[in-house]
Every structure is written in structure tokens, then in C-alpha cells.
Amino acid sequence: MTKKFYQLSARERLEAMDLTPSLTAFYRERQSDEMPNLIENYFADFTLPEGLLRHLVVDGRSYQVPMVTEEPSVVAAANNGARLVGQAGGFQSHQTSQSLLGGQILFQDVAIDELLAYVSEQREAIFEAAKLAKPSMVERGDGLKDVQIRSLAGRRASLDLTVQTGEAMGANAVNTILEAVKAVFQPFSKNIVAAILTNAGHDALVTVTTQMPVSLVGGLAVAKAIVSLSAFGKVDPDRAVTENKGIFNGLSAVVLATGNDYRAVEAAGHAYAGSTGRYQSLSTWKLDDTGEFLLGSLTMPVNIGRLGGAIAAMPMAQRNLELLGAPSLGALKKVIVATGLANNLAALKAVSGPGIQAGHMRMQARTLAIQVGAVGDEVLKVANGLAAEGAVDQNHAKKILGEIRK
Ligand code: NDP
Description:
Layout: H1 10-16, H2 21-29, E1 50-58, E2 61-68, H3 74-87, E3 92-95, E4 100-107, H4 112-133, H5 135-139, E5 143-152, E6 156-164, H6 171-184, E7 192-198, E8 205-213, H7 220-235, H8 237-257, H9 262-273, E9 283-287, E10 293-301, H10 315-323, H11 329-352, H12 357-371, H13 377-389, H14 394-405
Antiparallel strand pairs: 1-2, 3-8, 4-6, 4-7, 5-6, 8-10, 9-10
Helix pairs in contact: 3-11, 4-6, 7-8, 7-11, 8-9, 8-11, 12-13, 12-14, 13-14
Residues 134, 136-137, 140, 166-173, 197, 199, 261, 264, 305, 307-310 line the site of NADPH dihydro-nicotinamide-adenine-dinucleotide phosphate.
């Protein structure tokens, strides 16, 4: 019997894909032993650049932070923001001490009173089912911690579970517990629509703050400009979404470098940004009462792990955690959020000051040089040539490369 595509080895898949010999050879060189089991239909590794945030100070400790991103200027901005904050003593963090992830059992056409009465009657059975589903968690002091009913519009309700997930993000653990708890609700089986974790992260908030003399950002006028721009992020969703994108530039680069689920972190962050009913920037920048200090803060949910998921399977994630100094899960979360705030500061400073385009142009010139075929030393020569001519486009890049190669 012929195997289905998903049953083939990575090598066999390339043959089945009917590619040109050069494309087959290209992908074959990019197959590894570590990644095939992480996803389905694997046929090659896709590499991304990893850059270093050299010196991030959080709660008095200095970290070297790995950042994985394909976007120019992101790592430079993180270093820039972190350097300024570092001169003021670094970032401070505040967070819930435990890792908590939520789960939902969703009911429809339900009489809320009956459901409430049943939950209160079955409370012990619910906790017992959760314990039997994941005894290892309970042994570690983790597992189901709370159960609440939330009434929703149109005779709907959500049974909200709060699960302590230890050192892991806990997505699979929560789903396993939900399946077991669902069985306790046999009398309501016709009303149950789904049992699934929520990425909302209400109980996983991390806050990072900084207080810096205005002189560090270039004086009171610059600080005021940063504060003004930040205020737009509170009243205009169009501005807020761009500001939050800038935060995730840094934040997600660290989430990715440590093998964590950046989609989960970003979804939770955006939901939190809209939690007042209007989508707002996640960070806040203001002046203190004396006008001498710029105060910055960033609060958002962070459900990640330092083990489990893909972390153990990806050697780069393991090494990156080592590079970070094998931080506790709490420390890793604050490093992630602090990097987001560092990027945010650099972006606000650039946008409210001379504009972001100058720095971007330099990086774009290098990207353009590579696009037109520059290699090695040529990249910088072409980029410098473009900057000197003040025209960053492909035609100029080609012309300069041609001149260099004459
Ligand atoms: P795992 O399924 O890998 O579970 C964690 C593993 O670590 C378990 O085997 C657990 O052992 C073990 N472990 C050892 N020590 C500890 C400790 N101190 N604390 C906690 N666990 C420990 O990972 P997660 O449940 O964290 O799931 C994360 C993955 O799920 C990510 O890859 C994510 O992308 C994915 N995912 C995300 C979803 C979402 O966000 N909506 C949905 C579904 C999946 P034991 O079993 O003995 O407890």
C-alpha cells in the first residue's frame, strides 16, 4: 500500500514533491534531525537571524538577550532603549508569582441557575477529575486552582477553570484537565459546545516599569514629545496598533528565541489591549510631578514556559535559555516584557524626534544591497554608496554594485 504524504520521511517527501533537482538539493541541505517531529509534513528547516540585546537590566540583574527576527532595526532599537534605561538603573518588574492558565467549558441553551447549583454541588468531583487527569501536576503543587461560572449573552455560559501550570505554558495540560472535567457535566452534555483553554491570560499579568531622568532621552522637550505620542496610543486605535506592533517587535523576538508560542502571547496581548472596550497601546509613558523624570510602564499577560512544548526539541531554544543565564520562569517573563518596553521607548523616541526613517533607511540600504546580489564586503559598500547618494532604490543599488565590481 502506498504511504500517505504525511507518513513519508522528510527525504521521501522531497521526492514526492516532484521538484527540480536544484530545489530538491536546496531543501535537502536544510533538513535536520531535530525538527521533523515538531510539525506535520516537515520537509525543511527555515532559518531566521538571531541578534543580541547586549545588556538588559531588570531588577538589578543584567541579561544578554537573544532575539530572533527577520526585521531590520529591531535589535538595534532594543539595544538603544535598553541602554537608556540601563543608565537609569534598569527596569523594575511586578508580576503574579504563579503561572496560571485558564480553560473554558462552553455551554449554550443553559439555565444559569441550574448550572450554578450543579457546579457548587459537584465542586469536589470537578477537582478530583482534574487531579486524576494530571496527577503529576498535583504532585508538583500545581493543577486546578479555581472554578467559576460566567453567564454570557443568549443563555450561554462559560465554566472558567484556573490551572497552575508550573514551569510550562500548560496549554496541553489545561486541555487534558478540561476533557476530564467535562465528563463531570454529563447531565449537561447536550448543552456543551466545547472544552478548550483560553489564551486570555487574565491571571498571567506582568508589569515592567522604568523611571529615568529626562536628560537621558535628550531633555524635557523630547520627553514631552514621547509622552504626547504615548497619549495618542490611548485615544486612537490606529496609533495604538502600530505602537503595540513596535512592542511586539522586541517582545516576540525573545519569545521566539526561547522556543515559546509567540502567537499565544500576541493574541493575549492584543486582547488585553482592548480590554477597556477600546483598543489601546499596552504601554504608558508620562512625566512625574516634578517634570524631571520620564516614567514608562508596560503591563500584559505572558503565558510561556521554560520547558515543555517545542522548547526541549529545539537546540537553539535550549542554548538561548542557557545564554540568558537559565532564568526562572518569572525572570524570563520579565526579560520578555522589558525587551518590549525597550523597543517601545526607542520607537517613540525616534518617531517623536527626527523620525524613524533615517535609521530604517540605513538597514533598508543593506537589505537592498543583498537583494541586488552584493556579497561579503560589497554589502556595506553598496549601502554606504546608497546613503551617500541619498537614493535607496534597486536601480541605484545595481549601479553602485556594478561600479564596485568593475
Ligand atoms: P507540554 O505538553 O510539553 O507539557 C509540559 C511537559 O513538561 C509535561 O510533560 C510535564 O510533565 C513536563 N514538566 C516537567 N516538569 C514540569 C514542571 N515543573 N512544570 C510543568 N511541567 C513540567 O507543554 P504545554 O502543556 O506547556 O503546552 C505548550 C505547547 O502547546 C506549545 O507548543 C503551544 O504552542 C501548544 N499549544 C498551544 C495552544 C494555544 O495556545 N491555544 C493550543 C494547543 C497547544 P507531566 O506531564 O508529567 O506533568
